[in-house]
């Protein structure tokens, strides 16, 4: 009789839902984070071939090129076979994780909006350390280095756009603009011609600026050598 009672208690304990530990709850957010923006998925989409998932907006620049590669595994994929991930969306509504600032448990689907309004998170951002050299040095930090990280839209003057944001902005707002404009990315380079106007700026962005110059390029060499070095390094990494 006692053995039967113990077996019933054990069975009921196994059926009772387990509460995730604090570390497990924190891991839930990273499990449902976009590999590109590193935030919780927003309108997630999945690539059919490799099943990798990204925010819809994050994957958009990849869909604009002729032969797109998965940003995560670099496998070619058919842009027509990218679908909305309803299963991930459902999970975002089911799971909760602690806010990185106030530690309040928030549904993953609401995490982005919560973080944007969380005073603790905003305080953390404001208190982020400023740039200092990795190795202490007595040399002054140069102040005359041109900004090659953000750019101004040559069509409307929108500011503080990185290369990906510049492409997205122009595809959205200036897709049919016939004006010839100077490429702000090229003109920021040591070899750039600030007077040269591209007749098809969008095609120029898509084909000429597939990678970030800051990642691959040695600015002390000329353009052709820099391009070849960047391509060689990109191929080596793939």
Automatic annotation (TrEMBL):
Q: Which InterPro entries match?
A: Di19_Zn-bd, RNF_E3_ubiq-protein_ligase, UIM_dom, ZF_C2HC_RNF, Znf_RING, Znf_RING/FYVE/PHD, Znf_RING_CS
Q: Which domain of life is it from?
A: Eukaryota
Keyword GTP-binding included in the entry's annotation:
no
Domain C2HC RNF-type: from-to ranges = 99-118
Show the SMART domains listed in the entry: RING
Q: Which GO terms describe its cellular component?
A: cytoplasm
Catalytic activity, reaction form = S-ubiquitinyl-[E2 ubiquitin-conjugating enzyme]-L-cysteine + [acceptor protein]-L-lysine = [E2 ubiquitin-conjugating enzyme]-L-cysteine + N(6)-ubiquitinyl-[acceptor protein]-L-lysine
Name recorded for this polypeptide: E3 ubiquitin-protein ligase RNF166
SUPFAM superfamilies named in the record: RING/U-box
Limits of the RING-type domain = 34-74
The keyword Zinc is annotated on this UniProt entry: yes
Q: What is its EC number?
A: 2.3.2.27
Q: Which PANTHER family match?
A: E3 UBIQUITIN-PROTEIN LIGASE RNF166 (PTHR46016:SF4), ZINC FINGER, RING/FYVE/PHD-TYPE (PTHR46016)
A molecular function annotated in GO for this UniProt entry is: ubiquitin protein ligase activity
The pathway to which it is assigned is:
Protein modification; protein ubiquitination
**Where is the protein situated, by its record's location annotation?**
Cytoplasm
Query: What keywords is this UniProt entry annotated with?
Result: Cytoplasm, Metal-binding, Transferase, Ubl conjugation pathway, Zinc, Zinc-finger
Q: Output the GO biological process annotations, alphabetical, semicolon-separated.
A: protein polyubiquitination; ubiquitin-dependent protein catabolic process
Major enzyme class: transferase
């Amino acid at each position: 009789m006692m053995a039967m009672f113990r077996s019933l208690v054990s069975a009921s304990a196994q059926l009772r839902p387990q509460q995730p530990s604090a570390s497990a709850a924190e891991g839930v957010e990273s499990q449902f984070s976009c590999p590109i923006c590193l935030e919780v998925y927003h309108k997630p989409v999945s690539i059919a071939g490799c099943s990798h998932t990204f925010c819809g907006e994050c994957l958009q620049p990849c869909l604009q090129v002729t032969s797109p590669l998965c940003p995560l595994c670099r496998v070619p994929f058919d842009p027509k076979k990218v679908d909305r991930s309803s299963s991930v969306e459902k999970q975002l509504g089911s799971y909760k994780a602690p806010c990185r600032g106030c530690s309040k448990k928030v549904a993953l689907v609401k995490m982005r909006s919560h973080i944007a309004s969380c005073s603790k998170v905003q305080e953390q951002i404001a208190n982020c350390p400023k740039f200092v050299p990795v190795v202490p040095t007595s040399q002054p930090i140069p102040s005359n280095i041109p900004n090659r990280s953000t750019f101004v839209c040559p069509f409307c003057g929108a500011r503080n756009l990185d290369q990906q944001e510049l492409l997205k902005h122009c595809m959205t707002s200036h897709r049919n603009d016939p004006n010839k404009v100077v490429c702000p990315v090229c003109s920021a380079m040591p070899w750039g011609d600030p007077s040269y106007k591209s007749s098809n700026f969008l095609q120029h962005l898509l084909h000429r600026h597939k990678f970030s110059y800051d990642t691959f390029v040695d600015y002390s060499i000329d353009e052709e050598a820099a391009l070849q070095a960047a391509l060689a390094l990109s191929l080596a990494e793939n």
